[in-house]
Amino acid sequence: MSRNIIKFKNKPSIIGSASVTGKMESEGPLNRFFDLCSGDSKFNMDTWEKAEAEMVRECAEIAIKKSNLKHEDIDLSFAGDLTNQCAASTFGMKDKKIPYIGLYGACSTFALSLGMAALSVDSGVCNIALGEASSHFCSAERQYRFPLEYGCQRPPSAQNTVTGAGCAILSKHTGSHPSVIEFLPGIVKDFGVTDANNMGAAMAPSCADTVIRYFSLSDLSPDDFDLVLTGDLGYEGHNIFLSLIKDAGIDLENNSDDCGKLIYDTNKQEVNSGGSGCGCSASVFCGYIMEKLKKKELKNILLIGTGALLNTGTVLQNESIPGISHLVRITAED
Amino acid sequence: MSRNIIKFKNKPSIIGSASVTGKMESEGPLNRFFDLCSGDSKFNMDTWEKAEAEMVRECAEIAIKKSNLKHEDIDLSFAGDLTNQCAASTFGMKDKKIPYIGLYGACSTFALSLGMAALSVDSGVCNIALGEASSHFCSAERQYRFPLEYGCQRPPSAQNTVTGAGCAILSKHTGSHPSVIEFLPGIVKDFGVTDANNMGAAMAPSCADTVIRYFSLSDLSPDDFDLVLTGDLGYEGHNIFLSLIKDAGIDLENNSDDCGKLIYDTNKQEVNSGGSGCGCSASVFCGYIMEKLKKKELKNILLIGTGALLNTGTVLQNESIPGISHLVRITAED
């Protein structure tokens, strides 16, 4: 194939998953789908960065346990996050003694790690692979924006970085678990958006690009899917995305949603345009969506991880914010 | 396989490579092997960060051209660097419209991207893949340590971040190019080193771990290799590495070298313990080593990328510096 959809013939199964979140996420509508929530988002640590690493560690621990496996059964792990040099993933995974590949895809990282873990199992280079992603509101806020103590106000288009981690364990096809059957890596798209408080707008065009490429390469149509789930465009970005693909003749008005819209109750929680951060799609998918796939309430879905590729320096140097969106297709059918 | 060496049965070929460096590297002993050197390390840009991105862009451009290919022929690209959120790779690759997977492995990133590109070609998910890594002394120095204007003095154990990029293009086996035939992903190892001015010491144990694992899993012995090339431990770290593996019964005194030792002339250039940064092993491999493989002066080598997994925050919070080392085996034999 050449730039086609990567099709996993051996249909790697997601044999276990876990999601761990912070306080605010536990107060949202998906609370009962999370395996563990930290009441103060600190995970018994004395800094926010250590708290995020601990969340990564615990999330992987729970996912491995729920899959009835031990550390030594995992052949390869893929993980990434938003902290500089992906330190939360490194420090979270460092004592597990599992071969480790660090990924960076901003908020698209969970879909990317799921795709890469599936590829490594499908190609036969390993039996069991782990894919994880995380973010923490407090470590992200002070790294990207302002000290938390400053209490900065944010515009309605801004999203709230989710304190959360999600981890999935992939194995050879079992027949009884949801399977990852396709993967379409994203292409970096720069549409010249420069507003660091409107990530949804920066990411929506790349999300549209990946979805348009997918349907142009696939035999399937939007109606073949129970859910086309983006993560995390938020309210603002998801509307832009739906409008962009409608212009391209793809109608997902009735079967698309966004992890950033699902994770909080915007009537009660002050989160502006919804959730964001690698941990948003990771925790929503590994908790809520996996539950629906296991119960076959969802049978055929697309997960499109969307990332905004900036750092504090690129914004200060007046660079635009490119986006990237990686797509994975998951089925609950045997 | 389970945690075994990943063996590439289809022997993906490195059909082209390029290396681009800065001024100081062009004044070193490997000058004639670099495709392009910027006389002021600025690459005609007005910030060091933009200079690094431009270096990434030009390096990929040259590698694609030397492989007689066009952008649209590349099915998948893997890249990473040391800047926060891997921005140099993103901005360097963003206008090429090539599917893109961001990697983070600190200074081990080039070996990692070579391994992942080889895996994607070997498994048949793409025909042509690109692997790249970069670093820039000036963007790294002011991000990790002090403003350049401060003129900070550094201890003898410190390494000099290389301004350089290396890019390799992988395709199906051709029979006439060097091939990547094995890949052993690293395991994060934390030996409690906390001195951010002695990365060699932080990385050497993880490098020894990967090499010891390799020889315990392989039928081959150290004598089967013309060169076991680490990158980048520098003088300090390479000595520690040789001593650690000697303790484990592996003698590489006569056939091991380090990219951080090769790239500068330490008699004439003030670089303390040698070179470091993703761009060091990337530019040394894609220039000097590829030339020797093509001429069959080297026939069977191991490249072990070594990374120190820290950020400025982990150092300030008194965390230790874990290391990771990814190994690839390259052969010039058909």
What structural keywords apply?
six-stranded mixed sheet, globular, alpha/beta, 10 helices, 334 residues, homodimer
Per-chain topology:
2 copies of one chain form a homodimer.
Chain A (H helix, E strand, L loop, with lengths): L5 E2 L5 E9 L1 H4 L9 E2 L10 H19 L9 E6 L5 H7 L6 E4 L5 H14 L5 E8 L1 H8 L15 E2 L2 E8 L7 E6 L14 H19 L9 E5 L2 H14 L8 E3 H4 L12 E2 L1 H17 L5 E9 L3 H5 L6 E9 L3
Parallel strand pairs in A: 2-3, 4-5, 4-6, 7-12, 10-11, 10-13
Antiparallel strand pairs in A: 1-9, 2-8, 6-8, 9-14, 13-14
Describe, in plain words, how this protein is organized in 3D:
2 copies of one chain form a homodimer. In chain A, strand 2, helix 1 and strand 3 form a beta-alpha-beta unit. Chain A is built from 10 helices and 14 strands. Chain A has a 6-stranded mixed beta sheet with strand order 1-9-14-13-10-11, sandwiched between helices. In chain A, helix 2 (48-66) packs across helix 3 (87-93) and helix 6 packs parallel to helix 7 (234-247). Chain A is 33% helix and 22% strand. Chains A and B meet through helix 3, strand 5, helix 4 and helix 10 of A and helix 3, strand 5, helix 4 and helix 10 of B. Strand 5 of chain A pairs antiparallel with strand 5 (100-104) of chain B.
Brief description of this entry?
The structure is a homodimer of 334-residue chains. Chain A has 334 residues and is an alpha/beta fold. The first copy, chain A, is 33% helix and 22% strand.
